[in-house]
Amino acid sequence: MDDRSAKYRAFYAQLICAAAPRIEQAFRNVKRERFAGPGPWSISFGGHPYVVTPDDDPAFLYQNALLALDPARGVNIGMPGAHAYWLSGCGVREGETVLQIGAGTGYYTAILAELAGPDGRVYAYEIDERLAALARDNLKGIATVELRERGTPGCGCGPPIG
Fold first, then answer.
1. What is the side-by-side strand order in the sheet with 121-126?
2. pLDDT at 154
3. Is the predicted pLDDT of residue 1 greater than 70, yes or no?
4. Where would you tag: which of 10, 21, 79, 123 has the fewest CB atoms within 10 A of its CB?
5. Is the pLDDT of residue 162 over 70?
6. How far is it, in rounded angstroms, from Cα 142 to Cα 122?
7. CA distance 29 to 124
């Protein structure tokens, strides 16, 4: 199957990651649709109501927009431009260990894994059981990620997933 989103990812990454080449490459490498679930999708530019995309064309995902995971609760894959800015401030280097709280479906976890590289490690936590299950599936091929969810008696964080 042809990768319909490759050109969208390249443009999107360049647009939101100006002057941050490593972060731009991480955004280019990670397919947002993998973490969004099947379309059509509900997106918002923050502070505005969600708008449902007309279909499942991945072009709609490569906007600097919130992507609803649970519109009723306002749970989203966050605004990519803001995350790119914050990631730039964090300065994650290859080989580092990163801790993420609130993995959602794992999109930014995968971005962090790209930044930490093959010798790094990402420990991600998600307390919502449904989102953690989706993240587990989405991140299963990334060996450097350890995802934990709530549920294990005694530790409050749950067993490793993935």
1. 97-101, 121-126, 145-149, 160-161
2. 45
3. no
4. 21
5. no
6. 10
7. 19
**What does DSSP say about strands 97-101 and 121-126: parallel, antiparallel, or unpaired?**
parallel
Task: Supply the pLDDT for residue 15.
Answer: 83
Longest Cα–Cα distance of the chain, Å, equals 47
User: Nearest 10 degrees: CA dihedral of 101, 124, 71, 28?
Assistant: 110
Overall residue count recorded for the chain in this entry: 162
Write down the residue that tokens 């490690």 correspond to. Answer: 121
User: What does the pLDDT read at residue 25?
Assistant: 93
Amino acid at position 91, single letter: G
Cα-only R_g, the chain: 15
Q: What is the pLDDT of residues 101-144, one digit of tens each?
A: 999 999 999 999 999 999 999 999 999 999 999 999 999 999 99
User: What domains are defined for the chain?
Assistant: 1-81 (no CATH), 92-162 (3.40.50.150)
Query: What pLDDT sits at residue 125?
Result: 97
pTM of the model: 0.87
